[in-house]
Write a structure and sequence with these properties.
Blueprint lengths: L2 H4 L14 H7 L2 H4 L3 H17 L5 H20 L11 H13 L12 H37 L4 E6 L2 E7 H26 L1 E2 L15 H7 L4 E2 L3 H6 L2 H27 L7 E2 L18 H24 L13 H25 L1 E2 L1 H6 L8 H10 L4 H18 L8 H7 L7 H4 L2 H6 L9 H26 L3
Parallel strand pairs: 3-4
Antiparallel strand pairs: 1-2, 5-6
Helix pairs in contact: 4-5, 4-7, 4-9, 5-6, 7-8, 7-13, 7-20, 8-11, 8-20, 11-12, 11-13, 12-13, 15-16
Length: 476
C-alpha cells in the first residue's frame, strides 16, 4: 500500500478538505494517549484472534495481523520505531504502522470495531495494569507504618482534638490511625478494579454490530469478567475513571494529612521529628533553614488531585449519550493524578522510614498539659459517682491547678480530697500519662496490647488485599 494511503485518516472519506491546522492541533491526543500503546495492541490482538476464530477473517489473515501487531509492540519496546506524531491518536498511529507492514489487510482489523469501544477498552486495560502497582506501593507504605508502630509502642505524645491537647496516646497508635485510612484506600482501589473489569469491545460506535462477532470470546481473551451488556453504555461509560480519580484523590488527601503532621512536628515549636536531609531543602538566603519541601509538595499536589476529580465530574455532568469527544479529556486528568500520586506514596514511606523521632520531646509535651484529666473523672466513675458529677469535680480541680500554676502531676492526695472524699492514693497514679495509656485496653484503644492486636488485624487485612491485587494482576 502506498505510504500516502497508509497515512489517510480513519474517517476521511466523507470530507473534501483537511481539518483547519488550529482545529487539528486542538483535537490532537497522541502526545497524551501514547502511553496506551501496549493496551491498544493487546486489544487489537484479541480482536484479530476473535475475527479469525469466528471465520470473519480467514486464519491466515488473522495470524498475519497478530504477528504484525506483536512486531510493532517489540519495535516500540526496543525503541526501533517511533510514533508518527502527525497521527491523530494512538489508534491511528498503530494502524498506520500496521498498513506499512501488511498493506490493505490492516484495514480488516477494524472490522466490527470503533475507536469508541477501542479507547474505552484501552483505558480499562491500563487501569487494571496499574492497579496492582499502586496497591503494592500502598502496602509497602502500610508495612512501614506497622514497623514504626512496633518500635514506638511506649512512645507517648499528646493526642489532639481541635488542635488542643486532649489525651495521651502512643506514637504507635497515632501511626496506625494513618494506616487504617490507607487501608480503606486499598479497599477502594480493589473495588474500583472489580467494578471496571467489563469489556466494551464489540459495542462498536454505539449500537453493536451486524457482523457475527463473539464478544464473550474477546472479553475472556483480555481477562475481563464479562462483556458490558449495553453497547451504548459501553462506549459512553466513564464512571470507572471517576471511581479511580476519587480513589487517587483520597490517597493524596491521606498522604497530605501525614505530610502536614510531619511539617508541624518538624518545627522548633514541636520538635517531635527531624526529617532526613534527602527529603528537605535549604534556603537561598538563610543558611540555617531546613525546609520540609517534599512534604509541602505532597500537600500541594493533593490540591491538584482534588481539582482533577472536580474537573472530571463536572465534565460528565449532563453529558448526553453516547460517545462525545469531551470524553477524550479523561486521560490528561487521570494520568496527571496518577503521575503525582505514585511518587508521593513512595516519598511518604521514605520520609517516615528515614526520620529521626524525638521521643523525649514528645513525652515532655505531656507535662502540665492536663491531658489526663479524663482519667480522674473515670476514677470517680469507677467509685460510683455519675460521670456528669465527676466531670464537674475534675473541672474544678483543673481550674484550681491553673490558678496555682501546677499540673496534674503535682497533685497531692490532700488536694484531691478537698474536691471529693472518693479519691484515694491510687488516684495519683491515674494522672500519670503512662498509666493513662496502659488503661486504654479496649478494642481500638492506645494501650500496647490493644495496639498489638490492632497490628495483627491490620496484617490480616493487608494479606487479603495483597491476594486480591495478585488476582487482578493475573486475570484468568
Amino acid at each position: 500500500m502506498p505510504k500516502e494511503q497508509a497515512n489517510q485518516r480513519m474517517w476521511g472519506g466523507r470530507f473534501d478538505k483537511e481539518p483547519a491546522p488550529e482545529a487539528q492541533a486542538f483535537s490532537h491526543s497522541l502526545f497524551i494517549d501514547q502511553r496506551l500503546w501496549s493496551q491498544d495492541i493487546q486489544g487489537s490482538i484479541a480482536h484479530a484472534r476473535m475475527l479469525g476464530i469466528t471465520g470473519i477473517l480467514n486464519q491466515h489473515e488473522a495470524n498475519t495481523l497478530v504477528q504484525a501487531l506483536l512486531e510493532i509492540a517489540h519495535e516500540i519496546q526496543e525503541g526501533d520505531w517511533l510514533f508518527d506524531y502527525e497521527a491523530e491518536d494512538i489508534h491511528t498511529a498503530i494502524e498506520q504502522r500496521l498498513y506499512e507492514k501488511v498493506g490493505a489487510l490492516a484495514g480488516k482489523l477494524h472490522t466490527a470495531r470503533s475507536r469508541n469501544d477501542q479507547v474505552a477498552t484501552d483505558t480499562r486495560l491500563w487501569l487494571r495494569e496499574m492497579t496492582p502497582k499502586i496497591g503494592h506501593t500502598l502496602i509497602e507504605l502500610c508495612e512501614a507504618l506497622i514497623e514504626l508502630a512496633e518500635q514506638h509502642m511506649l512512645t507517648l505524645l499528646p493526642g489532639l482534638t481541635h488542635q488542643q491537647h486532649a489525651q495521651p496516646v502512643s506514637l504507635a497508635h497515632h501511626l496506625m490511625a494513618h494506616l487504617w485510612a490507607l487501608g480503606r484506600d486499598l479497599e477502594r482501589l480493589v473495588q474500583s478494579a472489580h467494578r471496571m473489569n467489563l469489556c466494551p469491545l464489540g459495542a462498536g460506535a454505539l449500537s453493536g454490530t451486524s457482523i457475527p462477532i463473539d464478544r464473550e470470546l474477546t472479553a475472556n481473551e483480555l481477562g475481563f469478567s464479562l462483556p458490558i451488556p449495553n453497547s451504548m453504555d459501553a462506549v459512553s461509560d466513564r464512571d470507572f475513571v471517576a471511581d479511580y480519580l476519587y480513589t487517587f484523590t483520597m490517597i493524596m488527601l491521606h498522604l497530605s494529612r501525614i505530610a502536614q503532621e510531619l511539617i508541624n512536628w518538624s518545627t522548633p515549636e514541636y520538635g517531635f521529628v527531624e526529617l532526613d536531609d534527602a527529603y528537605t531543602t535549604g534556603s537561598s538566603l538563610m543558611p540555617q533553614k531546613k525546609n520540609p519541601d517534599i512534604a509541602e509538595l505532597i500537600r500541594g499536589r493533593s490540591a491538584l488531585a482534588v481539582g482533577n476529580l472536580t474537573a472530571w465530574l463536572t465534565l460528565l455532568k449532563g453529558l448526553p449519550l453516547t460517545y462525545n469527544r469531551d470524553l477524550q479529556d479523561d486521560k490528561p486528568l487521570l494520568f496527571a493524578t496518577f503521575d503525582s500520586m505514585l511518587p508521593a506514596i513512595r516519598l511518604t514511606r521514605a520520609m517516615l522510614q528515614s526520620a529521626r523521632w524525638n521521643t523525649e520531646r514528645m513525652r515532655s509535651a505531656l507535662v502540665g498539659d492536663f491531658s489526663t484529666a479524663t482519667e480522674l473523672a473515670d476514677y470517680l466513675v469507677n467509685k460510683g459517682l455519675p460521670f456528669r458529677e465527676a466531670h464537674h469535680v475534675v473541672g474544678q480541680i483543673v481550674r484550681d491547678c491553673i490558678q496555682q500554676g501546677i499540673g496534674l502531676e503535682a497533685l497531692t492526695l490532700d488536694i484531691l480530697r478537698r474536691h471529693s472524699p472518693l479519691f484515694e492514693e491510687d488516684a495519683l497514679q491515674a494522672v500519670q500519662p503512662e498509666q493513662a495509656v496502659q488503661a486504654k485496653r479496649v478494642l481500638g484503644g492506645t494501650a500496647p496490647e490493644a495496639v498489638k492486636a490492632q497490628i495483627e488485624h491490620a496484617r490480616k487485612v493487608l494479606n487479603l488485599l495483597e491476594h486480591q491485587l495478585h488476582e487482578l494482576a493475573n486475570p484468568v
